[in-house]
Amino acid sequence: MIDTNISNCHVRTLVVDDHKEWRQNICSILAAQPELEVIGEASDGLEAVQKAAGLKPDLILLDIGLPGLNGIEVARRICQQSLGVKILFVSGNNDPDLIRKALSNGAQGYVLKVDVSTKLLPALKEILRGDPATG
Fold it and tell me: How many independent structural domains does the chain possess?
């Protein structure tokens, strides 16, 4: 269980990745955390922006390599319209310049897909606490 220091609070989460298997993997990890509620999924950038506007999640887990709009542009657009949403990139790209760019567009954290099993939940704990998370 993630200790978010928010008692009896559900963190409404949107999962965005163009690969269905990755979305399912992330959703199964989140499902084991009672305080995290997956309220939607998106498979491309435009869908992610639309669902974020309609669902108003507290947290978005976002891939960079998306069809339509890439994740960095998605984060920029969402941050412009959704105050208070926290964004954690979950990506296979480990290019330091791309990570810096992703984090400079409003995201609070970045976790590599190869590290999801060990670093996703600690990163979520950090950003829900208000700290940046990179792993």
Answer: 1
φ and ψ of 101, to 5 deg = -65, -40
Say which residue the tokens 């999801």 belong to.
Answer: 116
Query: What CATH number is attached to the domain comprising 90?
Result: 3.40.50.2300
Q: Which domain holds residue 42?
A: 11-119
Quick check: 61 and 15 in contact, CB under 8 A? yes
pLDDT in tens, 91-117: 999 999 999 999 998 899 999 999 999
| In-domain check, residue 39 | yes
**pLDDT tens profile 3-43:** 444 434 689 999 999 999 999 999 999 999 999 999 999 99
